[in-house]
Amino acid sequence: MAKNLLIVESPAKAKTIEKILGEDFEVKSCFGHIRDLEKDDMGIDIKNNFMPRYIVPEDKQKVVKELKQLAKKSGEVWLATDEDREGEAISWHLCEVLGLDPVTTKRIVFHEITKPAIQSAVKNPRLLDLNLVNAQQARRILDRIVGFELSPILWRKMSMRSNLSAGRVQSVAVRIIVEREREINTFTSVSSFKVTAYFTGKDVNQKSISFKAEGAKFSNVSDAEKFLESCKSAIYKVADIQVKPAKKTPAAPFTTSTLQQEASRKLGYGVSKTMLLAQKLYEAGHITYMRTDSVSLGETAMNDITAQISTAYGKNFVQTRKFKNKNESAQEAHEAIRPTYMNQSKVDIADGQKLYELIWKRTMASQMADAELEKTIAKISISTNGETLTAQGEVLKFEGFLKVYREGKDEDEEEEENNESMLPPITVGQSLTLKEMIAMEGFTRPPARYTEASLVKKLEELGIGRPSTYAPTISTILKRTYVEKRDKEGTERKYRVLSMSNDIIKNKQESETTGTEKSKLFPSDLGLVVTDFLVQHFENVMDYGFTAKIEGNFDEIAHGKMKWNSMVGEFYTPFKTEVDNTMETAERIKGEREIGIDPASSKKVIARMGRYGPMVQIGDVSDEIKPRFAKLKQDQSIETITFDAAMELFKLPRNLGTFEDQDVLVSIGKFGPYISHNKQFYSLSKDFDPYVINLEEAIPIVEEKRTAKNERTVKVFEKEKIQILKGPYGLYLKKGLKNYPIPKEQQDTAADLTIEEVKQMIEYAIANPPKKTSRKKKS
DNA sequence: CAGTGAGCGAGCTTCCGCTTGACTT
Q1: In what order do the strands lie in the sheet with A680-683?
Q2: Secondary structure of chain A: what % helix, strand, coil (to 5)?
Q3: A468 touches strand B (CB under 7 A)
Q4: β-strands A662-669, A672-677: how paired?
Q5: What pLDDT does A775 receive?
Q6: Which residues does A729 contact at the CB level (< 8 Å), separation at least 6?
Q7: CA A389, CA A195: separation in Å to the nearest integer?
Q8: Chain A residues 734 to 773 with C-beta below 7 Å from nucleic strand B
Q9: Are A384 and A244 in contact (CB under 8 A)?
Q10: Which of A84, A267, A525, A758 could form a disulfide with A331 if both were Cys (CB 3.0 to 4.6 A apart)?
């Protein structure tokens, strides 16, 4: 009898499952979706009830062909795609393409790849859930409509010529970054003075002790000073001690999102790097599937984990837990991310060890005992003013899960200096000696800029995007340059410190660096203006709750309570009206902002988007005097640039004077600052500031780089902007940014080439690009 | 690339969500 064919999504899964099922089944993978909407068009017949037009994309044709052939000669075909909306749809598409009857074809699901789970799944096949398939179609079609209607509006309304895009997920992701940036910009930091006292004394055994205690916060320096003043000659006594037990609970096992966050905090990985390494670990069989939103662990896995904990740390370290997902949008088709074998603590994947270790520890910790603590809070009285100070200490009574793992924290979650040190043994009534009392100025902090991973966290909270798309979404908004990932240097800030020892109060000023950022997401001006535009015209789609709202509708479709095309239609009609309206009536996107009047010409100075990005402009094209333009520096923004900073930009290009009877100019080009002299350009190193460099400094740079250049230049056709240059492999032609080869036989006589011959050579090179030699070995 | 920078516009671009290989020296 012919074998049955079982189709899953992932090839790595296929291998494992084939082993489990044995002789009767041949297990193949379809590599995810095998059909999609037409690519070049909307792909939807809107007038015909939004009937989708599906095609098999080029890169899936090979797989589909193979599956078709196998299906023909196999016994029964079983569909075992993931148990979620997308998986159900993939199975339906498989039916369509392989000519299977969706009403009789066997459909099975499982959440873990273990022998019992799979065998029981095979014993209990069900049929395709067409309601769920329709929910997926609604999701797909709605996303296509939003993306393919909004993007063209941007092409029309944005003068920049680039591949702009908008979509349900990406545009909201950018909005999150934009709004955070504005929160930071409008944030005003408030300072206060916090009192800390450093005490010494003796414990019951007459051993010397020392610790610190904290007092009130004062909103200004004079109140803080008054307080210190009032503590002069005071007697300090321990007024009260309270001891409270406390416990800490381990975090749930990893999902895609939490893995990305933790790898970012602890290992400094970007989300793409994390996923790439996780993929390698998965393919090598070291971990379970890495694109998941589930926190649950299979039964077999639980046994493996608890056995491992018992052996390594003892039975009292075991505490099993069934974690539940907080997130309603989770579809839980897989397990949490965990090692496949807990007894394996090392892997042989290059760069993968650290990530594996993180997964291993997190998994172990999740089934380990709570950590038990003892928190001590001591109140210290001040005799002179009746105020009290508080000293806190924490003692770990039982390590529990902390033995292997402690979750990292995001910047904005960092609690105020959580004192996790121990308090020395003190007794109520005991008097203490004040060594020093300090009132230090501190400042409230603006919200933190997002990292890739903290953005993923936010998106997940809003139910926007899926585990398989978090990393690609971030790549998209970076590629579109709506958002930039970069560092920011901190700024110096002064703060005051009042200190009192031996009843003498001193007032010092110190300085610190604040606001240093590493690998953070900043919105570009493009991101700012496009977001404003979209929010203004498409508030509905840009709303943070939009996805959650339509997910509710998809659920109703999945439960057969709503028809998918009427749901899409309800969205489409008002949306399309707004699209048409916006196309016709909306102004071009400029993000224009007036920032002042140029005193020299008394013309308006504006900051706005230009063809080549953000710029400042004096005057207008309609003026008699020509307008002047300057592009913004990398860290400047239309929204925040000051008048003075803008005027500084107009100092370029700048004529430094003459050298060898030719002007020396300094300016900033696409690739940074440069000097131009005698029609040649010399890029300026970081050591020189184009706004301050003078002629004396510029001349040596020109001379030095010119000699270097002369050694390379054989001939220059100035009018045509073509050069013949000497390279490591011989002579070649350079036109603009592109290089073209000079044929071997003409290498020696290249210096005598005429412009006509050179042009012909370039034409020939363009017409005959180097061929990709695909040599297939003949067996 | 480059002493500019607008706008004009031919013809191009684009979505989200599933999955992995891969044109070449």
Answers
A1: A654-659, A662-669, A672-677, A680-683
A2: 35, 25, 35
A3: yes
A4: antiparallel
A5: 30
A6: none
A7: 9
A8: 735-737, 772-773
A9: no
A10: A84
